[in-house]
Design goal:
This protein is an all-alpha fold. Helix content is about 70%, strand content about 0%. The protein has two helices and no strands. The longest helix has about 35 residues.
Length: about 80
Amino acid sequence: MKPPSTLIDAPVFISNIEAVLGQTCAILHEMDRGNLSEANVAAVDTAIAMLNVSSEACSRVVCDIERGFQFHGTGGAV
């Protein structure tokens, strides 16, 4: 995945990151924890929480960028 070349491309790029974070979170959530130590279970739970926060942050950034486009327009150099 290449980084966006302009701010206009950023929402799609960030949405793709958000999707990957969500998929990773789902995989961690579904994994069999029966063979993990308590510390590793706690680490997985922490990772899931961090992925959720990161995904929510991506969503907010996309909304902020899109709101900026609506307010300022996209006609000029970005």
